[in-house]
Give the backbone structure.
Amino acid sequence: MTRATRVGVIVGPTASGKSSLAESLVESLDAEIISADALQVYRGLDIGTAKPAPQEQRQYRYHGVDLVDPDDRFTAARFARFARKAIHEINQRGRLALLVGGSGFYVDATLGGLDPLPASDSRWRESLEAVDRRRGTPELHRWLSRLDPERAAAVAPSDRHRILRAVEVILREGRPVADLNTMPNGQQQRTIPATWVGLRWPRAELYSRIDARVGAMIEAGWVAEVESLLESGVKQSAHAMQAIGYRDLVAATQGAVDLEAARERIARDTRRYAKRQMTYFRRRPVTWLDAESASDGEVESLTVRAIEALESP
């Protein structure tokens, strides 16, 4: 790793093996991991987020996990403030900061500065909310896809809050959200230099891994986790509970759908999310590593290739 590069970034779609790769790099690169996962920040969302166990968090020097309660609303801006402080402290210890995860907004906010978005305008918001009530959130997501494909690729079609916010800003400002990273004097927000590495799989194999992972999470007690969260007082309307999987299992615990139907919907939505992640990260300066089987030899090969990419000038 060159002296100028202070951060390594490991990205890729869900279930691609990002965390396992990062953990294999901790000792060889003298690194600490910052989890760039929009759901691992929530306490109690463990199984459905593939959160590392407390022992693993200590062993592999994790940051960015269990930061807030599920009924709080965490944002990319809050994460960026946390992650930038963590990067500084890790670098001060003489170690490499590894920013690892599939939440593109969190990675970009950390490395590129925070979007200086204008405050929400109640008149615009009320008008868009009326459209949402009449035509539905997926329709507004289609608007967003036409207005700002990059932002749409990173937002789930069901994420009403982020879709309304993005469409409002774009219509008011007349330009994509990413362009608002430019300050009034034309300069860019202060950025943190980083080397990006990504994991990618053949689509069929990735989708098979996703299906297997969803099944394993349910077998590991994901339903009981959701029931425990609800029993502890977390509202089903909480932002964290609207995430893929959690909203479906809430419906299953209430008898609105059976568990098998919920499992199939979770796997389907996760596959769609993985596709959006790849679309988003293809626009970033990523050195892609092609993963194949999960054999010991392949894992070792991925580690060596990742080290070479992160240490290259």
In short: DSSP finds 13 helices and six strands in the chain. The chain has two domains: 7-114+189-311, 122-181.
